[in-house]
Amino acid sequence: MADRVVTRTLTASLTNHSQVHDDLDSHGFAASKLWNVGRWTIQRVWDAIDHIPDADDLCSYLKTHDRYADLHSQSSQRVLQQLAEAFVGWYEQDDPDANPPGYRKHGDDHPRSTVTWKNQGFKLDTEYNRIRLSKGTNMKESRYAADYILCEYTLHTADRTLEDVESVQTVRAVWTGDEWELHFVCKMRVETPDAPGEKTAGVDLGICNTAAVSVGDETLLYPGNALKEDAHYFRQQEYATEGENGPSQTAQWARRKKARRQHHFLHALSKDIVEQCTARGVGTIAVGHPKHIREDEDWGRHGNKRLHDWAFTTLLDYIEYKAKDRGIDVERVAEGKLKTSKTCCACGVEADAHRVERGLYVCDECELVANADCNAAENMRATVTPNPSQDRSNGCLAQPTVRLFDTSTGRVVPQEQVAP
Q1: Is residue 273 domain-resident?
Q2: How far apart are CA 388 and CA 256, in angstroms?
Q3: In this structure, what CATH number is given to the domain that contains residue 308?
Q4: Which domain holds residue 329?
Q5: Of 216, 238, 341, 410, whose Cβ has the fewest other Cβ atoms within 10 Å?
Q6: What is the pLDDT of residues 77-104, one digit of tens each?
Q7: Could you tell me if residue 404 is inside a domain?
Q8: In whole angstroms, what is the distance from residue 23 CA to residue 79 CA?
Q9: How far apart are CA 418 and CA 420, in angstroms?
Q10: Residue 341, φ and ψ in degrees, nearest 5
Q11: pTM value?
């Protein structure tokens, strides 16, 4: 076994929640106020010179603002960095239906925003499971106020302690809707196999089928039904409750709930992909990266919206770090000119007409019949293993093993087979 240093986020509950609740509330509200000041500043600069300031510009503009001093300086910097990143993400969508990042408020009330402390803003005591979180200058003005928030915590993962990690990079106080919890972003060592396997797997990412995996003699298909059902349900909840003065509390709840469920789905899916590859002796995974797909052409209003919601980069990141834990290499393959979905994986002939229906691929040249996404996954595998000697007569490309997300357990399981 070999050691690797990886980044992980460990979640913890606060055992003295009643004692620190008010202080964390004040910092969460302060983070929202600073976000709103930054949002107003961006709008003012944008209207004046048609330029959206970046994070460094925002910090420079607002460093002397009274709201900046409500938080520790590094915490204030992180709030403005997140705002700038949100504007970059919105601008790069190039979607006329997408709105820029808005203000964090419900009428005159502000929600509790996540507050981040970097290395100079906290002091950790792993022996007694305590951490000191530095307050902003304005929060220390009372002669009776402490200079820090002393939090006592219990990690959610019973087999982990912060004494086991290499270092804690940042600490986040996150409001869950009911209470505050702490997220520790850590560097830690994990054991990985020295020789995971010699096989190569190809992975094709999609919208209808979230992923298709080919390991040569077997293919796996991961439908995205659960993800689409969530997107439809929570989008209806969000739009139906949109307030006149910005998103209502129900609309914001729907957004957060949808995001949490999507992240859990992608975590469960990526975990299962890596586990299935490990069980089959895979040492290298070639994943298609459609990074320019939103720029290649106009897919229409509905198609562009689906592309905007498609979190393929997040899924790629999850697959990469989970595979790294198992000692498996991941290669991102740009899909731009490969035509993996139109090219026959058996004879190499490319034709649009081969895709008879959305999920069916029939080659006129060699008469291969395959699931279209599995055909693309096998082409992806061939980018790493150029001449795979593979007998495809077993029909694995046409009848892949289907693995479904079980909403009752939150895990990916094999599709139940109906007895004839």
Answers
A1: yes
A2: 44
A3: 3.30.420.140
A4: 199-226+262-414
A5: 410
A6: 999 999 999 888 777 666 666 678 888 8
A7: yes
A8: 18
A9: 6
A10: -80, -15
A11: 0.65
